[in-house]
Amino acid sequence: PPLPAPQGPSRRDDTRQRADHLGGEEFFVLLVGVGELSGQRQPLAGERQQEDSYDLRPRIKDDIVKLEQKLQAGLGSQLRKDRCLTLVNREATYSDIMQAQRTLIGKIARVRTPRVIVFFGGHGFRDHIITHDRQYICVPEFLDKIRVVGRKPDCEQPDQPQIIAFIDACEGKIPSDLAVWEPQAPCHHANNGASYIFRAAAPGELALDGVLTDALLAALDVPDENLDQMFVRLKAHNPRFCQGIRFEKSGTLSGQIVLHRRPAGSAPTAAAVGW
Q1: Pairing relation of β-strands 128-130 and 136-138?
Q2: Which candidate, 3, 159, 233, 270, has a CA 20 to 30 Å from the CA of 15?
Q3: What is Dmax (Cα atoms) for the chain?
Q4: Is 225:258 a contact under the CB 8 Å cutoff?
């Protein structure tokens, strides 16, 4: 009798084969700095109209450049130059930031284990940041969209993006004319990803100008520390002003996240030895 015709690979096998061709653990970065706001600030409910340029952190552009350089040096081949997006002041309008989010989502779709670093330095209030053109972006919603939309719907990507966010902004009272953000329905994928958010202030509190940025720039010089160790170092950077820094975790961590890996064969630094 004739031999049965060979069967082609199943969809599951084909998906696994395509996943094997995806890259390994790789980082993507979005750095946003808003040290000045355009136009005249609109008064909140019950507040008198006033002339206020609302500028802060004159060196925010330098901070963003330093953050990019330190992340590039610390992550090495895990962070390609074209996977680091920076927006500062006039470049950081609402439309610019949302376009950067879409660009980021498009870039992470073909990576096996994408890890996304998001930094925002500037004005904010409870769970929201303020763009250069004085519009509002909800931080949980912004990060959640990267995690959920950034995963291929046919599950050829084994892991959802893991988000590491640094929000150097105030966490004060929500303006009365802004609707409170409602969480989206939970994602039904097997791996819902994870978010790790460092905040400069506790809920309802103001943040000192650049307190988290300064501590982060120093912490990125220390190699081989995971995020929990980095959190302790951030709070210890200036005990008087850094005690309000918070570290929020959600989801399951896939392996240890280290933002500065010591090159193989190099000796520990003095800072690492003394820690």
Answers
A1: antiparallel
A2: 3
A3: 92
A4: yes
Query: Angle between the 60-75 and 211-219 helix axes, to the nearest 10 degrees?
Result: 30
Retrieve residue 10's tokens.
Answer: 């199943």
CA distance 38 to 59: 17
Mean pLDDT, range 4-29, rounded to an integer: 53
Closest CA to 26 of 255, 272, 268, 212: 255
- Angle of helix 211-219 versus helix 227-237 axis, rounded to 10: 120
Helical segments of 22-93, H only: 60-75
pLDDT digits (tens, 9 = 90+) for 97-116: 999 999 999 888 778 778 99
Instruction: Give the per-residue pLDDT at 159.
Output: 62
pTM here is 0.77
Is there a contact between 112 and 22 (Cβ–Cβ < 8 Å)?
A: yes
Q: How far apart are CA 238 and CA 150, in angstroms?
A: 36
What amino acid occupies position 56? L
pLDDT of residue 14: 43
Both tokens of residue 166? 């640094």
Quick one: 19 exposed, middle or buried, by C-beta within 10 A (0-12, 13-18, 19+)?
Answer: middle
Contact 19, 67 (CB under 8 A): no
63, 196 contact by CB (below 8 A):
no
Give the residue-averaged pLDDT of 229-257. 84
CA distance 228 to 105: 26
Q: Which two tokens stand for residue 102?
A: 């879409």
pLDDT 10s digits, 27-79: 999 999 998 888 655 554 444 444 344 456 678 899 999 999 999 999 998 89
Per-residue pLDDT, 254: 59
